[in-house]
Design a protein that fits this description.
The complex is a heterodimer of chains A (584) and B (522). Chain A is an all-alpha fold and 584 residues long. Chain A is built from 36 helices and no strands. Chain B has 522 residues and is mainly beta. Chain B folds into two domains: 424 residues, YVTN repeat-like/Quinoprotein amine dehydrogenase (Methylamine Dehydrogenase, Chain H); 74 residues, no CATH class. Helix content of chain B is 6%, strand content 36%. Chain B is built from five helices and 31 strands. In chain B, the strands form eight sheets. In chain B, strands 1-24-23-22-21 form a five-stranded antiparallel beta sheet, with no helix packed on it. Chain B is globular. The chains are: A mainly alpha (584), B mainly beta (522). The interface between A and B is large, with 63 and 58 residues.
């Protein structure tokens, strides 16, 4: 039996093998405590072998173990003993659950990065080779993620061997191994010497790009950009470019989708000239693809793509496609375009924007699908920088009004969130004329989230245009609405008041808003009354102490006598806050 | 009894040109056989049968939501895991199986929104890959698909704990004992409240550690047991009843099909799926056909086939577009003119389709026939096999008692030379596919399968075959096979053989007659 003070640790250790998975998890998460209690030597000689042997646990426990072991070097006696951590992680690399394997690989990489070169050769590289020749595909999948750690410290002979192991993995029977080889190829390639990069790695790459399985080819495309950046531009043009052009016409829409997502990075890798001759045509094809998913991906990259090609080429080749996309049959394509098209304005310059882009903006602002309109409005500041808001404002207003009254409350919520942005772009005058009324209108919305957002919006507007403007244009209208017969709307007004008070300052608060709040304390609905108590509490730090004593405290004392228990509770809370302010 | 003609394009069949001798079928094993006069429990009726890719394992599902696994007993030691993984080899002799484990896959549920009861009945089972000796399989009822992992674990005993358990509560197999409540609470207090400092953190550990502490010892016994565990639940993606699930050759995705839609899932992602086929018309009154079955091509990851109630099979290329409403190929046999009658549309409905292992042929089953299609020939099947032509005069009766809507499954042998499907009175038929073959054996799912051949002579011999092997539960040893109505030539429409499966490598058929599983080899 152990001594009483040791009980917690003793039980922590025992519970490594408890029946209850939650207790086992707790113990594993405190593995470092257990290791410290056992000491470095016993951790190496007992705990680590113990963990290596007991790996048929639930996945959750194994995942936690894989994570803990990644940071375990200090507990086994430092870097020179790091290799003792490899065996338990090696077994975790072979389990069925992908997340556990991934975590084990991640931890092995963490440890490998810290290990001495000699130890890597003695321990880590043999481990990679063992996993690479593993009986089950799980080991081989994990192996692919370790080569980039093993390779740099290997001797020439070992390096050749590692490359040949990787070659086997690229041609494995199981597609999941080939997928892993494809997705890790970029990382591995970055550590391989240029001479082998051009021969071996490119050969692996070519084979993966010709795989029967779409899922493998997809991942090979993803690697294109990473590989391209490692190669000299002329090699990249020679070996990567044809593959990409080929992929952009692949039979599978998912492969083309990947190309559409990656093309921009590839342009960077190959340089301007091949981009002009080969990649722009490929991109134009993708923008006109039969499959909407591909067009969505391509449309989303329009601005980025325009930025790396010359404005002239953009106008000549890409702009016509953009025009087509703005009337695409798929609303998702139009929405994707709308979310980026504003970014094209600075690239094309003022003249082209007004001539070419403005009609497209305006068309999208009238789109029947609310997301398209919202996406345009959300990026309004970018156009403003180029052409100014005047040209847009005429079309803008109907779009905003329509969105503000949309049937779906989420759409209304989205437009409210853009109102401060619009206000700052459009200026006070435009706002007063057209939008002020809308903002008040939302305070009376049927949906709570809209009313709440409307109140927050008023606060942000007050911050934007200043307290004086708020006193004139917001506060009187807001205060008027306190007489709404429905208590939920009155509550919204109280909420708005509490937000505005922090912006407009003590004087305005005391003069205009405080009386309304005090008055609301006599409301017949208890919910209003305890909200009054809460607001009064929030006003205490804003107003003068004299106001607190003369106005707020008497009101709270009255609420403190209320028959409703909740009202009394919040009144007491507020009174305590009063006392604190007074005593300081 | 007329022997079924293998009609149609015998010459067009592209199967290996070897002349296969007619198979002699013999009884191999029976599991869960019913005793004479024993009532069949509804929940025990088998509703799905599936071999895994290697044929090492067999799974059945029943109406009670249970999945029962069987494993091969013979020559298991001589096969390496590597072989199991690749799974293409010839077996020395016919396989024998034993019960290995069972688990409750689905429970009855109630959909409160639609006020619908969801049965626990297993509609389909599909085996996934095997890893580290653990088997993964998908099972589905009408609405929910589940991924199960069945792994073998050694039973373990934990000893040498630091804190001895109280007497009378000795350490049990499989885990550590329950600790005394006092200590337990002390410990829990250290985890319970987040802000309080744990006693462990308070305790200063001397450098070099505390020698008196020790790790528990785990003693593995040589005994192993199978532990089934539900790994993922793929739910809420089907508005209609799921009729098929099928794994992709990429080992990453699978499809599930209901009456109107086919969804694509990633095995590792259970909270989203992609709709790839949707035949639901905007107005449900325009509905003219439903999806009855769907299956992935065995090796081409982008190809799948689905059948419809109109008797057509569509081949889909998933590379073409995200939503595959346009088929790549449509297989439909033109109706011979003047043959249309009242039941034509009903009996044309395809109840099951299967690709052969090479993926060159598709076998389909409609109410009266099986058809073998060459995927490269859309106009007509290469062969048609009449399963129970003698029932044609009785279609009216079958319609009246709803039997005409029964969904019979079909299967192809691993070598692609034979096909099989079930009928009534617990009969099933095996046909030779090779051009010129007139092999069309009738077998009965009982211990005397060949009785069906000379039904009129009513042989009752061979009843007392030793059944000691392969028995699922302790039901009585010797009993006479059911359905004595057969002898009079009357058809027993309640004894229908809907589910059957062909071993992937050997000539072995497993079929379900009500709650019993029968296996036959040749």
């Amino acid at each position: 039996m152990v001594d009483e003070p040791l009980y917690p640790i003793a039980i922590l250790i025992d519970e490594l093998k408890n029946d209850d998975i939650q207790l086992r998890l707790n113990s594993i998460r405190r593995l470092s405590t257990i290791a410290r209690a056992l000491g470095e030597e016993r951790t190496r000689k007992e705990l680590i072998p113990f963990l290596s042997e007991n790996n048929d646990d639930d996945d959750e426990v194994l995942l936690a173990m894989a994570e803990e072991l990644g940071a375990f070097i200090p507990y086994v006696g430092g870097v020179e003993y790091a290799h003792v951590l490899l065996p338990p992680l090696e077994t975790l690399c072979t389990v069925e659950e992908t997340v556990v394997r991934d975590k084990a690989v991640e931890s092995l990489c963490r440890i490998g990065l810290q290990m001495k070169e000699r130890d890597l050769v003695d321990w880590f590289i043999p481990l990679v080779k063992r996993l690479g020749a593993g009986e089950w595909f799980t080991a081989r999948v994990s192996a692919c993620g370790l080569f980039h750690i093993a390779y740099p410290s290997a001797t020439d002979l070992l390096r050749a061997e590692l490359r040949s192991v990787y070659n086997q993995l690229c041609h494995d029977d199981m597609p999941m191994v080939r997928r892993s080889a494809a997705s890790n190829l970029g990382k591995f390639a970055a550590t391989v010497e240029p001479v082998h990069l051009k021969t071996d790695i490119m050969a692996f790459f070519r084979d993966l790009t010709q795989d029967d399985q779409d899922s493998v080819r997809l991942l090979a495309v993803e690697g294109c950009a990473a590989l391209g950046k490692l190669l000299e531009p002329q090699d990249c043009v020679a070996s990567i470019l044809p593959v990409i052009v080929n992929f952009s016409q692949d039979k599978s829409w998912r492969v083309r989708f990947m190309v559409a997502n990656q093309l921009y990075e590839l342009c960077e890798a190959v340089g301007p000239e091949p981009t002009r001759t080969d990649l722009i045509p490929a991109y134009v094809r993708l923008l006109r693809d039969n499959e909407a998913e591909v067009r969505i991906a391509a449309a989303g990259k329009v601005t980025k793509f325009c930025r790396i090609v010359s404005p002239q080429l953009a106008m000549q080749h890409i702009l016509p496609c953009v025009k087509e996309l703005s009337t695409d049959s798929s609303q998702h394509v139009r929405a994707a375009l709308a979310s980026v098209i504003m970014g094209m304005a600075p690239v094309l310059g003022k003249e082209a924007t007004i001539d070419q882009l403005l009609p497209i903006f305006l068309a999208l602002l009238k789109d029947e699908f609310p997301d398209v309109r919202l996406n345009i409005i959300s990026k309004l500041d970018q156009v403003n920088q180029v052409i100014g808001i005047d040209l847009l404002s005429q079309s803008l207003l109907p779009a905003i009004v329509e969105l503000a009254e949309d049937r779906h409350w989420r759409v209304r919520l989205a437009i409210i969130e853009y109102i401060p942005l619009l206000a700052s772009q459009l200026g006070v005058d435009f706002f007063d004329d057209k939008l002020g009324l809308l903002c008040m209108h939302w305070l009376g919305d049927q949906v709570f989230s809209i009313r709440e957002a409307a109140a927050n919006n008023l606060k942000r507007l007050a911050e934007e245009f200043g307290p004086e403007w708020a006193c004139q244009h917001i506060i009187p209208q807001v205060l008027e609405m306190i007489n709404n017969p429905h208590y939920l709307y009155r509550m919204t007004i109280l909420y708005a008041i509490s937000l505005l008070a922090s912006v407009v300052g003590a004087e305005v608060t005391c003069q205009t808003m405080l009386p309304v709040v005090i008055n609301a304390a006599k409301d017949r609905v208890p919910n209003i009354k305890f909200n009054v108590a809460k607001i009064l509490q929030s006003l205490i730090p804003i107003v003068d102490t004299s106001v607190v004593e003369q106005t707020i405290r008497p009101c709270l004392l009255e609420l403190n006598e209320d028959p409703d228990v909740d009202v009394r509770y919040f009144a007491t809370q507020a009174l305590q806050a009063c006392d604190q302010v007074m005593s300081t | 009894m007329s022997s079924g003609e293998t009609g149609g394009g015998a010459a067009a069949s592209g199967s290996p040109g070897v002349e296969a001798p007619a198979l002699e079928w013999k009884f191999s094993q029976a599991f869960g056989e019913r005793a004479a006069g024993e009532e069949v429990q509804e929940v025990d009726i088998i509703s799905a049968i599936e071999f895994d890719k290697s044929g090492e394992h067999l799974a059945t599902g029943d109406r009670g939501g249970r999945v029962v696994l069987f494993e091969r007993t013979d020559a298991k030691e001589f096969r390496s895991r590597k072989e199991l993984e690749s799974a293409d080899y010839a077996l020395p002799r016919y396989p024998e199986y034993r019960y290995s484990t069972e688990f409750q896959s689905h429970e009855p549920e109630f959909d409160y929104l639609k006020s619908l009861e969801i049965e626990e009945k297993i509609n389909k089972i599909r085996w996934c890959h095997t890893v580290n000796g653990s088997h993964f399989l998908l099972s589905t009822n009408d609405k929910t698909i589940k991924l199960w992992k069945v792994s073998e674990k050694k039973l373990k005993k934990v000893t040498d704990l630091n804190v001895e358990p109280p007497i009378g509560n000795g350490s049990s197999i499989g885990g550590s004992p329950v600790l005394s409540s006092r200590i337990y609470n002390l410990h829990n207090a250290s985890w319970g409240g987040q802000p309080t400092v744990s006693p462990i953190d308070d305790f200063v550990i001397p450098p070099g550690g505390i020698p008196s502490l020790r790790l528990p010892t785990v003693v593995s016994s040589s005994e192993t047991a199978l532990f089934p565990r539900c790994r993922r639940v793929y739910a809420n993606a089907h508005a209609y009843h799921i009729n098929s699930i099928s794994n992709n050759s990429d080992f990453e995705t699978f499809i599930s099909a209901d009456d109107l839609r086919i969804n694509l899932w990633n095995l590792e992602v259970s909270d989203q799926s992609f709709n790839i086929v949707d035949i639901k018309p905007t107005n449900m009154e325009d509905l003219t056909e439903v999806i009855t079955s769907a299956e992935f091509h065995p090796s081409q990851c982008n190809t799948l086939a689905y059948s419809s109630s109109k008797g057509t099979i569509r081949l889909i290329d998933m590379r073409q577009s995200a939503l595959c409403d346009n088929h790549a190929k449509l297989y439909e046999e033109p109706e011979p003119p003047g043959t249309k009658f009242f039941f034509t549309a009903i009996i044309a409905s395809i109840s099951d389709i299967k690709f052969d292992r090479g993926g060159r042929y598709i076998l389909s089953r409609d109410y009266m026939t099986m058809k073998l299609w060459d995927v490269n020939m859309e106009a007509s099947p290469v062969a048609t096999f009449k399963v129970h032509e003698y029932l044609r005069p009785k279609l009216c009766d079958l319609y009246d008692n709803d039997s005409i809507f029964d969904k019979f499954e079909c299967c192809i042998s691993g070598d692609g030379l034979h096909v099989a499907s079930g009928s009534y009175s617990n009969l099933f038929r095996v046909f030779g596919v090779t051009p010129g073959s007139d092999e069309a054996t009738i077998l009965e799912a009982s211990k005397t399968p060949n009785r069906g051949r000379h039904m009129q002579t009513s042989s009752k011999s061979g009843r007392f075959i030793n059944l000691g092997r392969g028995r699922r539960d302790n039901r009585r040893e010797n009993e006479s096979p059911g359905s004595s109505e057969m002898n009079g030539g009357a058809y027993d429409f309640t004894s229908k053989l809907l589910h059957l499966a062909w071993h992937p490598a050997a000539n072995l058929i497993a079929c379900a007659a009500s709650n019993s599983l029968y296996m036959y080899y040749a």
